[in-house]
Amino acid sequence: MATIIARPEPGQGSREQINLVSIAHGRIMLVLLLFVAVVLGMAGRMVWMGVAAGARVERSQSAVPVPHRGDIVDRNGVPLARDIPGYAVSVRKDRLIGDRRELARALHRIFPDQSEGHFYKLLTTGRSNWAYLRTRALPREVAAVNALGEPGIEFPREPERLYPQRALAAHLIGFTNRDGHGVLGAERAFDERLLADQSRGTPLQLALDVRVQAALEDELARGVVAQGAKGAAAVVLDANNGEVVAMASMPTFNPNHLEPLQLPDPLPPQLLGPDGKLDVNKLPCEMSPRCNRVVQALYELGSTFKPLSIAAAMDAGVVTDLSKTWDATQPLVVAGRRIRDDHPLGRWINVPEALVHSSNIATARIADAMGPAPLQAAYRSLEFHQRMTFELGERANTLWPREWSRIANMTVSYGHGIAVTPLHLAAAYAALVNGGMWHPTTILKRQPGEQIGSRRVFSEQTSAHMRQLLRMIVLSGTGRSADAPGYRVGGKTGSAEKPSNGGYARRSIVATFAAAFPMDSPRYVVLVMMDEPQRFARTAAFTSAPVVSAFVTRAAPLLGVFPEPNRDIDTSALMPLLHEGR
User: Fold this and answer.
1) Is 463 designated active site?
2) Mean pLDDT of 276-296
3) Beta bridge pairs of residue 531
4) CA torsion 244→484→210→228, rounded to 10°?
5) Which of the residues 90, 249, 288, 303 is marked catalytic?
6) Hey, what domains does the chain have and what are their CATH numbers?
7) Contact 171, 247 (CB under 8 A)
8) pTM of the predicted model as reported, rounded to 2 decimal places
């Protein structure tokens, strides 16, 4: 018999029934509270996002943040310019508690390059409540501003442009302004590309080799000090593709710490841009260490033009026999101008002698026999009549003769009456020795097989003759002090008086040596120019040529060229010509 035990139903109004109802009610209220909390949280989030968005809009309307830029590296990947985290100084005007005039005065003491009025205007005017007080501030400046104890001033982090090599290649690399845009050198030339590259992480690779650059700057600086020169310029080109391996201009500057320029007040109109403000690229080199003398300064480069003129005469069929002699017995007078030699031989001389002894008279006679058309054509093919084909924006236009008269044709043949930049001449020498091909110069590292727009300007036979003649100038002529044993240097001196008051200043010399090495198979062109050396011996043979020798000896192995004492270009057929008539 089974026994069933059943729980009795609770009576109506019992305590257990009341507890169950209370529990259910509590659970419902908890769900409602959670729902309300979620809704309020979402609403708060939306309100916060709206406020933040408004703040961002307000900030973007008041100032443009410093943009990120891509890195710049040398041909071997060594960093030349890159962004690092930095500080800016900004203000929220509604949070300022101190006297704004006094705050502006304090900011001027910290940032003396900006006036007190400039800061007071930022603190008091403008539709926006937010404004930049300073971009790219130094840590010590940030600390000084922070010490003012003003709660309305903030310190947002922004990119800072750093140049790890400091002053090395400063003119070539350039620098950026406070808005993060390039204003000089590669930074300016490739501004848009660098702004785009930062998102891809692709660096801008230059043809520059920092090791070669350091050697060039060091030897050039030594020469400037030794000669007391006003300034100097030097460039190293790959003779076979136009790459700028090194470029130096003296005096120089550190792009990490730009010193204020000492400018006249008021500024001359010729220094102003279309906006009426100073255009730094119009400043003459005498007024700015930021001036790149390799591409911005024009010079009459004197006798360094003679090999180019002789080469043009060879291609024009005027010089077909190097043993043919030209009258250099006495100065040449044409159209009231007197053409003379600094070291006259007083006899008829041949072409090798004309170059080895740097005869203005013989070169002028050859140019006269050639006529103006071939020489003009040769110089135009070398871009002596215009700004160079080159990436940098700081490129000076040349001074081209207004009228190519008979006397102009003669003087231009030996480098007077025409003014070009040192880079013009370096590119021309590359064509002179590399087989006759002119290559557009570039600061970028070229890729194998890249089409670069080269053109023939001299015949291969003429180029071969010029390699012999340039080597003879170093072995037996005015370029002896440029020789670097084992490296087969060839080149030409040029010592030109600077124009002054419608004539020439005899004591203001531009001393240039244009060289190439090794001459049996040229790979590099080196040009060194001294602006107004002050020592007793001021010609290129005593000033610029020794710098070339020291540089080649030091840097050639870095470029993969090693000394070979028992190897040289064959000049045996031409050397006997130097002794004819003696």
Assistant:
1) no
2) 85
3) 231, 510
4) -90
5) 303
6) 72-205 (3.90.1310.10), 233-253+289-579 (3.40.710.10), 260-288 (no CATH)
7) yes
8) 0.82
